[in-house]
Amino acid sequence: MHRWSELFIPTLREAPADAEVASHKFLVRAGYIRQLAAGLYSYLFLGNRSFNKIMGIVREEMDKIGQEFYLPALHPRELWEASGRWELMGDNLFRLKDRKGADLCLGMTHEEVMTDIASKELRSYKQLPQIWYQIQSKFRDEPRPRSGLLRVRQFIMKDSYSFDIDAAGLDVSYKKHYETYRRILDRCGLKYMVVEADSGAMGGKESHEFMVRTPAGEDLIVSCESCDYAANMEKAASKLAGVEDLTLEGGGEPLEVHTPGMKTIEDVARFLGVSPKNKIKTLAYMAEEKEAKTGKTKLRAVVVLIRGDHQLNEAKFAAAVGGKQTRPMQEDEIKQLFRSPAGFLGPIGIEWAADMKDGALPLLLVDKALEGRKNLISGANKEDYHLKNVTPGHNFRPTAYADLRAVAAGEGCPNCGEPLRIDTAVEIGHIFKLGYRYSESMGARVLDRNGKEVTLIMGCYGIGIERILTAAVEQSNDENGFWLPPSIAPFEIVVCPVNVKDETLLKAAVDIATRLEADGFDVLLDDRDERPGVKFKDADLVGIPFRVTVGKKVTEGTVEVVQRSTRQIQDASIAAITDYFKVLRPAR
RNA sequence: CGGGGCGUAGCGCAGCCUGGUAGCGCACCUGCCUUGGGCGCAGGGGGUCGUAGGUUCAAAUCCUAUCGCCCCGACCA
After folding, report:
1. How far is the CA of A17 from the C1' of B22 (A)?
2. Would you say domain A491-584 falls under CATH 3.40.50.800?
């Protein structure tokens, strides 16, 4: 039996000054974790117990679809060079040398190791499909660790990798993970959303993120309350209300208007008596391309046009230019291309590349919200002048139309048209179809049924163990502490004799705890010789979902069962005490 | 990497401006007392003031450098 008096549960009355978010404050105060250095935390008894429960659930569910491995955290440089990530990961990768001077790194994920095994061992299509997973520590030299356990430099991740012979097989592996992730998060008692996500430059077609809404989150998700549409901000789309175009003025050609000192969209729109929706916002960037052979950096101008009242979504933009590094143009670069100061930029009078591959000419990317619009107002590339009657496709030719704008709250859902909301959220899990990214570069191939060599198609799937606990705390806390879903709480019930010097109370409490334990519940007996107030405060703080208070009423054969989340108190018969916790054992 | 803030006892903080023997609350130890929401009384232990250098008769305090931590931004398979 776990007796509080013998355990190390260092609760604090006050949170450390440098804790900002609720989960950080409470996990420290409740004695779950202690900080060792920036982004590095020690998990104490309660924290470790909770993580073990989470990993237990993950393992149980993953074992239904895959096989658990244990892999090195220390990887040789050659492995990461084979995938190209030794270079690509830059400072995010922890690097070190062994005594012989050989380069090693601490794994931030295990694509390389898993693919290495696959490439060496898998020979035939008959061995496929395979799903391999591991639950281990990952290391990332984050530029800025923050928010307690939310963004750290060492953390535990369940990651799995699927190997299939073809895309249809990958679809099956992907779907298995999707369903398994739902089961895991359901069992962990989290309220979460599944959103369509950007697979990034890693080159996958399909990707979903499992997100938990919380103000502490670092990601933005767009969702519809009327239907089940939900997407990562980087991927989200929306329906726009129709906009009335301006009527043509003069002879139909672009018409210069004097707009002295009017540099912002707002200024110009107000000055000309039109809506920003009829204005083109011109943004100028430089894309940096590294030439593979020479290592030289090539610059290419990229101009983005979006509607005056819209914002550019950087991730969509990055995707549109094929993942190249981009940065805003500097003043002299703007001068050179537009021959105009910023504030009066526009697409007319410049020769644009006809397609993305086309050599040296600047690219003109136009947001889809401008496609088909007429008689817009843009900068004239001349100080203090703008142009009326500007129609995309007619007065200038875009290199490409693309979805580039950031969705805003209140815009229409792409599925049902109802207003969208935007929330911050924490990413708990991410599944995506990797494709051939690693199998190709690392030579993971098998023979198919025709004896032909085929490159394996892969998927990868991650779950952040710490983030499950963190999100649960963020989701359920009040001024006194937090409460966890029973499935991931370090204990399910804390039995709390009000006065341990009273032999009757203590004996009754020990008896109750023993019986609950015999019935398979995780019980903590608070046998500390403390005043009841202290014990109640601690019980409220440490995240245990139920409390049994053993007080004077034992003489009548009664104790109190307190539900932490609702503060609901009910008298319970000692004789039938286990009945009150049947709710903790729902049929699975 | 850019901007801002903070390092004084286990935790939370004051003292620094105006240099002169380092303090408060909580926690901890001992005793008494108390026992349904962080109780009371008495006694006690614990600090190279992040580190290094400088100024000064004298530095937690002034100056310089450096390290660490937090926040905002950039970044984030």
Report:
1. 22
2. yes
Element (H, E) at A291: none
A316-369 pLDDT tens trace: 888 788 767 777 887 788 888 888 888 889 999 898 988 877 677 888 999 999
Q: Is the CB of A109 under 7 A from strand B?
A: yes
> How many whole angstroms from its chain centre is CA A271?
43
Whether the CB-CB separation of A378 and A388 falls below 8 Å is answered with no
**Rounded CA–C1' distance between A433 and B55, in angstroms:** 65
Nearest nucleotide (C1') to the CA of residue A536? B37
CATH topology of domain A255-402: YbaK protein (3.90.960)
Residue A294: which pLDDT band, with cuts at 50, 70 and 90? low
A29 nearest nucleotide via C1' and CA: B11
Copy the structure tokens of residue A541. 């703080």
Burial (Cβ within 10 Å: 0-12, 13-18, ≥19) of residue A144: exposed
Instruction: With beta carbons less than 8 A apart as the criterion, state whether A453 and A14 touch.
Output: no
Please report which confidence band the pLDDT of residue A588 belongs to, taking 50, 70 and 90 as the band edges: very low
As to burial, measured by CB atoms within 10 angstroms (0-12 exposed, 13-18 middle, 19+ buried), residue A404 is buried
- The whole-number pLDDT of residue A41 equals 94
Is the distance between the Cβ of A538 and the closest atom of strand B smaller than 7 Å?
yes
pTM: 0.91
**A455-472 pLDDT, tens per residue?**
999 999 999 999 999 999
Q: Is the CB of A327 under 7 A from strand B?
A: no
Q: Which fold has domain A11-236+422-473?
A: BirA Bifunctional Protein; domain 2 (3.30.930)
